Amino acid sequence: MRLNRTITTFALVAITALCAATIAYATIRGSSGNGEDSNAPHWLLVGRSHDTKLSNAGKQATMRREIVCLNQDVEDSQPSPTLILSGGCDTGDYMYVFQFQSRANNLSVDIRHLVGFDSSNANNFGVMICDSPTNTIELCANATVSQIPNFTTTTTSNSVTFTVPNSFPNYPAGTAQQGRGLTFFVITNQQSSPLPIGLPTVGIH
Fold first, then answer.
1. Helix, strand or coil for residue 84?
2. Does residue 50 sit within a domain?
3. Which of 40, 54, 37, 13 is nearest to 168 (CA)?
4. Which residues, at least 6 apart from 34, have a Cβ–Cβ distance to it below 8 Å?
């Protein structure tokens, strides 16, 4: 089954059940929805990483990642921070951003061990594009909506797999902070226990 993408920043879309997993619609989200350069201390919890090499069954990819506080509530930026929550997002709403480059065909990206993941809400996973000059310091795909491949998304209660058919896209670089490559995001809600942060694992096949 092929994904028909919803082309809006915050889309409400249908989910199709398929046994234990779901083939689902996903959201294309603009980086401007997460914050602006001027208030980055409030939303950028963990800045972009160095490239990580991933390989499996002859396929290879490089990945960068960062963590965003969805509600722009980095604890350490709060007027009266809760000290035992230092280093986290005050409400426990975390957005994980993953940027990939690859020359593989039909590449699947597996993001697993998600804590507090609601797979029934398609706003919680999809592609992040660079859409505004007011946010130039977040990882994002330097591409238009029409340039995003018709990827398939499969979810479980604690994982999401993005499968990109045919050739993996090659986008021009954005700013040094925006990076270069197809950029996925996943949102989790850990309000009952904002810390320790449940860090997902990433693999390819």
1. helix
2. yes
3. 54
4. 43, 68, 70, 72, 95, 135, 138
**Does residue 6 sit within a domain?**
no
Structure tokens at 62: 């490089």
Residue 81, domain extent: 25-99+109-204
Domain total for the chain? 1
At 204, which amino acid appears? I
Continuous segment of H or E residues that includes residue 41:
helix 40-43
Domain assignment of residue 19, yes or no: no
Q: What is the pLDDT along the chain (205 residues), one digit of tens a residue?
A: 344 444 333 333 333 333 356 676 789 999 999 999 999 999 999 999 999 999 999 999 999 999 999 999 999 999 999 999 999 999 999 999 999 999 999 999 999 999 999 999 999 999 999 998 999 999 999 999 999 999 999 999 999 999 999 999 999 999 999 999 999 999 999 998 899 999 999 999 9
Which tokens hold the place of 118? Answer: 């609601």
Residue 120 covered by a domain: yes
- pTM, entire model: 0.89
